[in-house]
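Q: What does the predicted 3D structure of 2OG-Fe(II) oxygenase look like?
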Amino acid sequence: MPVVNDAVKTWLNSHIDRGFSPAALVDAMVGAGFESELARATVNASFDAADAADAARAAAAATPCGIEAAAGQYRYDPAPLAAGNVIRACDRDVKVLMRCERPQIVVFADVMSDEECGEMIERSRPLLKRSTTVNPENGSRDVIPNRTSEGAWYHRGADAFLERLEQRFASLMNWPVENGEGLQVLRYGIGAEYRAHFDYFPPSQTGSGVHIARGGQRVATLVLYLNDVATGGETFFPDAGVSVAPQRGGAVYFRYMNGARQLDPLSLHGGAPVLEGEKWIMTKWVREGVFA
């Protein structure tokens, strides 16, 4: 008889984030051999925990001017990206596959060539270390169970190859190169994920000040897909009902700070567990001001 372990809990949390109903999850667990009573109790507990987390986020949300805004209060102003179905990004034509207005999400194809993707994977492979997240209390970078990837960091403009990519990404996002953080490459193996989170630094958390001091708040993210993933690994936005499948050379852009410095709660997002193969991505975060 199967037991409820961390893998089962991770699976449940992922499917709750992606909108599956309690009945569907109970049926799936029973079909996998769990006793019906255990399945119902486990699913109900997982939904209760998810509801509590949602309530905590709502309680932490505040109103305008550089702090978090409740979903109905965030004002969507025009994103800085160029219009059209093809954007000339410095040295490359990039295709626009999808635009979402609320939250502001744009999906791209052909941001990087196959050769560039392969180069980033191979140069990053020997540098990988367990990924960290920002500690909300003191701003330190800690390893946590919610993020099970490995990563490698690069200083901005570290060499000519990276500088060329950064110029392209800055042109695509229509945001200054000097406002960008260094590139981060991440590898996700089977079962690895990043549960739903925000990329901005929550102003209500004391640890955010350490990072905001280095160039201001984060305003947008570009996630670049360095390989195809056969199953799983989507970038999902649970409150918006949007999910983006990894495609080699493509990317997803999302913006979460407007001109009034409000922060968009609908930008909550995560990386679904990889179910087959591995996932390699590269992340570019950009700030309000010059990042030093």
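A (community wiki): The structure tokens above were generated from the sequence. The chain is about 25% helix and 25% strand. The chain has two domains: 6-60, 86-287.
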